[in-house]
Amino acid sequence: MAIANTVVLLYFIIFSVPVRVLAASQQQLRFDGKGEFRILQVSDMHYADGKSTPCEDVLPQQFPTCSDLNTTAFVHRMILAEKPHLIVFTGDNIFGFDATDAETSMNAAFAPAISSNIPWAAVLGNHDQESTLSREDVMKHIVAMKHTLSQLNPPEAHFIDGFGNYNLEVLGIENSSFVNKSVLNLYFLDSGDYSTVPSIPGYGWIKLSQQLWFQQTSMKLRRSYMNQPEAQKASAPGLRSYMNQPEAQKASAPGLVYFHIPLPEYASFDSSNFTGVKQEGISSASVNSGFFTTMVEAGNVKAVFTGHDHLNDFCGELTGIQLCYGGGFGYHAYGKAGWARRARVVVASLEKMKKGGWGAIKSIKTWKRIDDDHLTAIDGQVLWSKSSADVDNSVGLGMLK
Amino acid sequence: MAIANTVVLLYFIIFSVPVRVLAASQQQLRFDGKGEFRILQVSDMHYADGKSTPCEDVLPQQFPTCSDLNTTAFVHRMILAEKPHLIVFTGDNIFGFDATDAETSMNAAFAPAISSNIPWAAVLGNHDQESTLSREDVMKHIVAMKHTLSQLNPPEAHFIDGFGNYNLEVLGIENSSFVNKSVLNLYFLDSGDYSTVPSIPGYGWIKLSQQLWFQQTSMKLRRSYMNQPEAQKASAPGLRSYMNQPEAQKASAPGLVYFHIPLPEYASFDSSNFTGVKQEGISSASVNSGFFTTMVEAGNVKAVFTGHDHLNDFCGELTGIQLCYGGGFGYHAYGKAGWARRARVVVASLEKMKKGGWGAIKSIKTWKRIDDDHLTAIDGQVLWSKSSADVDNSVGLGMLK
After folding, report:
1. Which of A46, B19, B64, B130 could form a disulfide with A333 if both were Cys (CB 3.0 to 4.6 A apart)?
2. Across the interface, do B399 and A126 touch by the CB < 8 Å criterion?
């Protein structure tokens, strides 16, 4: 077979498969009766051994009584305050170097999510594998935990890089025309730990195989979304030519993407064009693997949420995509004494139709809560709204090079 | 079929297909009896209508007699001076806006290569499609021309982005153990023209589908190269585990990559760390699509050669890969009056074994010639040599984020 046939075959396969059907046992995410879907992001818990693990970078008066249990208490309080529909843990969930046993540490770290009966999802950071389990085994342990929607990888994808690459669909409200259609798409990726390429120092990155999976999945979800009015039936005639029109860009469900290590593009901002703070450098990989471009090309990603840099908690918009940090959450993680640990909340809201009933998503908002007595909410902002989506930066042609 | 099965199938296909077999009619590139392979790069000819098309940016005294024919003459002289084994035209071969008929213009532009009976290859720039033919038809016309090894795309790859993505293998010297093995791999890609994504302004970029093809092809060529001592037989037992060892990185033939628009990484240099000149900004795409990272990961690319920025002609090394410009060649292209048009030559040399016979490649050198009375050679440098290939920048671990 010629080399290039692989590319042909690949695309033949991509365009000919239906959207993945959820296993019957898997809990389906859905917008609530008020037309809302709330996501709590918890990043960099750095959990180790619980009560015996001291806090880092807290005020002297906090230190004597501070441990991993403060992290646990903060998760509990955030859940009570926000009543999220989904909790997303964006890596460095445990701090492997100090965790005596990875399973015990994970069980304790995720316990508040499990006891709340709320669905949760997790991705890996760069420290999760530094205790007694490999990255694969850490993710396998997570996937087997109660109430999680985490997946090891797309089923049977033995050759995708990393562990914990998967997507979740959030269906429209009951008794609406979107009842069986994903109106909000969530993507979870493994951004790796450290470079394994000798000539490249530093942190890992999202590889080509993962980007290909993202591109395929995004394309199929868009195709499914466009099959109006009935949800997820076979593709309509002339679909591909329609897909090439700019209008098709708008006819897709918004996507949110979660992973651990920020992209190099996070370094594009300063305080004049972001909301939140930037108190340290952007610790992305030292190379750019192109995932930001892949997301912009996909045309439906509205925001990206990472962790890793505990002292940065901003959201900045670049080329139509909001690049957000969760902000440091864990007490056994480096931080800044006197600068409270924090978590990010995202709320997607459906459009209420004039005739009654519910439409597609009209806005995606975010804020953070800091771990003070009142869990004070800060930095509220609109990440995306239907009315702001029509901006068209036309391509400048006629360049003479 | 589940979404992820596509990824599995893709990899199954990749790992199970043999290296492409050349069509019997296709001329095979091979190192000469002196153990050398010479490539002449001609970039940005900007050919239009021949004698009636005036020059741009030449000295006042040159202007009255200067036309596209000066470009033709320069190609002829370069061929006579260097006697290359392959001529590579790296895009903007014609300047579509001013070419009355694209076919006529191309026939004239490539005529010196054809009349020399030397194999030649071409990729597209951002201006080649601006006359009477689409990008696809421009590439189809090129592919049908005499003595060219250009290909429209990997056979049957209807869904790879762009036109003119292909690779060529340069076999070892006759009567050596490399007689049937590619010891130098050449890759040619279509870097596009302009962005078609509304939110991204500016020039095009190398897409995921093209990078996937590059990754697959590079991997298969490496596997083939490693099948010692006989060339290109079935894979050896335990090959995959060997591939994971750092030594395997070295056991592959060097690769050279040609396309038109420079990568964002070309902006990494200043005069302290490159050879040549930088007289204008780097007009890459406004986004980074990750192809530089894909090449570094592949582990065998030694140098990249682009055009597009006529006033830049440097080579700079980043993470083990030399990023080179060809330098502006064409007289109907913007330039700088008094700064001569130029072309780049690359020579790969085989190692002469002590016992007699020839080994693998020992060095890759480059220089440019400027279009003065003596075709003066300038900026000679070693791009890569066997002895310099053992540098290992180990990954720094232990970071606490």
Report:
1. A46
2. yes
